[in-house]
User: What shape does this take?
Amino acid sequence: MRQGIDLLISSLWIPIFVAIIVWSFGADQDGARSVKVQKVEVPCLPGGALPSLTLNQSGIPLISWVDREADGAAVLKFAKWQGNEWSPPREIVRGKTWFVNWADYPTMAVLDDGTLAVHWLDKISSDTYAYGIKISLSRDGGETWSDPVIPHSDRSPSEHGFLSLKSVGERFHLAWLDGRETLKGKPMTLRSRFLSADGTMSDEILLDESVCDCCPVDAVVGKDGVVTFYRDRDHMEVRDIAWIEQGVSDGKPVSSSLVHDDQWIQPGCPVNGPAVAGDSGQWVAVWYTESGSMTAKDRGAVFLRSLDTAEGQYGKVHRIDAGNPLGRVDVCQGTDDRFLVCWMEEVDGRAQVSVRPWKLGSLTENRWVVAETSAGRKSGFPQIVQIPGTQQALVAYTVFDERNLSSVETAWLNWGENQP
Assistant: This one.
C-alpha cells in the first residue's frame, strides 16, 4: 500500500536558484527511508524543452536541452552539475531547419577520455518527416565542437532518428531508426555503427528490418558487447520490446530475443520505447504496454524485468506504475544495488513525474512523486540519472507556466543519511 505524501514548503531560506520541497515517505522493504526532493532551476530560456541527462567521464551529471530564440532558431545548450545547482549554460549548435520533436530529443554521451558527443535532427527536405541525424564532437569539454557527421549512409527524404548514443569507452555506439525502406512501402529498420573520437565510423549494420516507427531506442554496454533495446514489429502488428546483442569489435549481432512476450497488437506506433540500465552482462529493462494479456483493457502499464546473461535467466516481471501510467519511461542504476525507475502517471488530467526504487529481486512499495506537469505530448520524456558514489539522483522534465510557456526543470533526490 502506498503511503501518503506530506508536502512541506518553506520560502524563507530558499536560494535564488533552488526551491526545496520535502516529501516524507514511510518504510520500504529495506526499512525506514525518507527522500528529499529539491527543485533546481535549469538556466534555460522561456520556451526551453527536451531535456536529456548523462554523466561525464568523472561521473558528474550533464544536462542538455533546446532553447527557442526570437528569430525562430533552435539552440542546443548544456550545463554541468555543480553540487547543488547547474553551471551557466554553454551553446553547442543552433539552426533554423531542425526537426524538433517532443519524443525524439537530442542526447549527449562522453568517452573515457572526456570526448563529448551530442546529436540533433535536421531536415533533409521540405517534406514534414524527411530528416536526418547529425552528431558533433568536442575534445575540450564543450568549448568548441566539430563539424557534424551523419551516421546513416542513406540521404533519402525519409525519417532517421531516435538515436541511442552510448559510450563504449573509446568509441561511441550508435543505433537508430532508419526509414529508407519506408519509401518503398516497407517497414522502418534499425541500424547501427560505431563512431570514433576523430569522427571516423565503422561499417553500417542492419540490426532489424521491421521495427516500430517512432519509439525511442536505448542500449547498455559492456566490455564484450552492446545490447540495444527497441520496440519490434512483426507481420501481425505485434509490437513488443526486443533486444539485440552486438560484439564490440565488429558490431555484428550475436544474439537476440524479446524482453517479454506481451503480445501487444498495435496497428500504430505508441511512441513509447524501452529504457534500460546495467551492462551487457546484467541489465534491467523497463517498458510500457497496453497488451490485454498484461493488464486491463484500454489501460496501460509499466513493467520491469532483469536478465543475467551469464546465467541466461530472466527475472520476474514486476509492475511498477500506480494504475494509470502514460509511460515515457527511464531507468538508472545506483551505487547501492538499487535501480530507479522514472515514468509519468496520469492523475486528474495531469502528469505526475514518478520515481520508484527497485533492487534485484525486491520491489519496493513507495512511489516518489517528484513533480507535476502537463499530461500532453508537449511535456516530453522525463530523464533520470544517479550521481555515482551517493544516494542522490537528478530527474529532468519539462513544465509549463500560466501562459503555457515551457521550461526545463530538475529535481534533486536525496535519500541518504546526510540530507541537507
Summary: The radius of gyration is 20 Å. Residues 1-32 have pLDDT under 50 and may be disordered. The CA atoms of residues 59 and 388 lie 6 Å apart.
